[in-house]
Write a structure and sequence with these properties.
Number of strands: 10
Number of helices: 5
Radius of gyration: 21 Å
Number of domains: 2
CATH architecture of the largest domain: 3-Layer(aba) Sandwich
Distance between the termini: 55 Å
Strand content: 15-25%
Amino acid sequence: MIRKYGLTALIVILSLTLVAGLVFWFWWGQSRLDYISKAPDFTLQNVEGQPVSLDGTAGKIRVVEFMFATCPDICPMTTAKLVQIQEKLKNKDLFGTDVQFIAITFNPEQDTADVLKNYARGMKMDMSGWELLRGTPEETQQVLDGFGVYAEKQADGQFAHGTRSLFLIDRKNNIRKIYTMGDEMPTNEVYDDIMNLKNDINLFK
């Protein structure tokens, strides 16, 4: 009888181990985000005139958005969706503490600190977790080139730019996902990816 119970217990333990392994394998496959490349470091000025570097924000999960304040459609639509994510992260006490949003303007000549502050107010961006950054045209172009983002000023003052200009960066400055901006931005996916990175056990250099 004892040997029978011992065999039953062994079968139960093995079954539970198998189930746990399958659950972990499924979770790992679903939640793990690939490594794309190391994010290029940069130093630009925030709306208070203080220097902000990407390396200086390491330790947080970051979403980097490229935009300009007079953009008629794609940029404000993207920012509005990020503000939706902002509110969900605030409900979990993660925004500004564990997760940071960074917006870099294509158009530093027109997007002064005051213009960016007005943009932030109008879009209801919580500045406890956002950095709106600008630099010289030369610095801006270096950052664009580093991230592989295309942007070209047009005769009317607007910008033609690539729509894959939204980057998810992990705590160690690795780019883990690049998203399409505007109405095609996968808002729920971005939020889920942020939450997956929060518990990511896959370590990269």
